[in-house]
Each structure stands twice: as C-alpha cells, then as structure tokens.
C-alpha cells in the first residue's frame, strides 16, 4: 500500500524493546539508590551512637576510668558493651542480644603505651546487632555496616 500511513510492526517492536531496556536500567538504579540511602541512614545513627558513648566515657573522672578486657571490641564483655533499639535507647548490657536489639555497641579503654599513667585510648565500635560483624575478628578498617571511633583521655596536668 503506497499511501498507507503509520508504523510497521517491526518499528513498534523495536521501540517497545528500547523502552523495556531503559525501564529495566532505571529500576535497577532506583533499587541501588534505595540500598545506598538505607546504609547511609544506618551509618548516621551508628555514628551518633558511637559519639554519644565516646563523650560519656571521656566525661568520666580519672578515678572512674578502668581498663577493659583486651578483646572487648570483638566479644560482648559485661560492662564494655550494650544493645540499643532502633531509636538508640539502651536495652541492656547482657552478653546476648535482647528482643528488639538493633545495634550492638562495644567499647575498650586501654592505657596509652607511651605514658600509661597519664592517658588512655578509648575506642567505641557500633554495628548492627544481627550482622556477622559481631562475631568476626576485628578488621583493620571498619566495614560498611559498622562505625569505629578512637579517642584519647589524658590526665589533667597538676
């Protein structure tokens, strides 16, 4: 038909195929952005929780600062860990996660090797309570699901 107007079936199939590929790529991009946003939100909360504990430990008087166990950052040591809910409220400091625990927070206080009588190194590690990080050895650098802060508390000069 010489005077016919419109699209052929082949042209429609090509257009639909291109549209399908474009929409599939867009859906994958949206899923990746959603995952990245969730990780960023979780890391923000973990950073706040680690900072709160760091400030709490640094505010202790020098006579209240007691060294912790050597492995306090890799296992749940009573008095050096606690569990928190999604809003950051403490749920307890038992070695096992209570119901509703979302975050696990561990801390370590060790004397500064160069001057053990004048300063201590404080480390705080926060991670998701159900993550495999809780039972894994301490990696050299924090992973994507954990936050680690390191600070120093020094005795005031007299």
Rg for CA atoms: 26 Å
Largest sheet: 5 strands, antiparallel
Please, what is the oligomeric state?
A: single chain
Poorly predicted parts: none
Q: In what order do the strands lie side by side in the largest sheet?
A: 2-1-3-4-5
Q: Calculate the terminal CA-CA distance, rounded to whole Å.
A: 102 Å
The arrangement of helices and strands along the chain is HEEEEE
As for the number of domains, it is 1
Q: Categorize the overall geometry.
A: elongated
Strand content: 15-25%
Structural class: alpha+beta
> Quick check: average pLDDT?
85
Separate helix tally: 1
DSSP summary, beta strand count: 5
Helix amount: 25-40%
Can you describe this structure?
Helices cover 32% and strands 22% of the residues. It starts with 8 loop residues before the first helix and ends with a strand. The chain has one helix spanning 9-58; strands at residues 81-84, 90-92, 103-111, 119-128, 146-154. It is α+β, with helices and mostly antiparallel strands and 158 residues long. The chain has one domain. The chain is built from one helix and five strands.
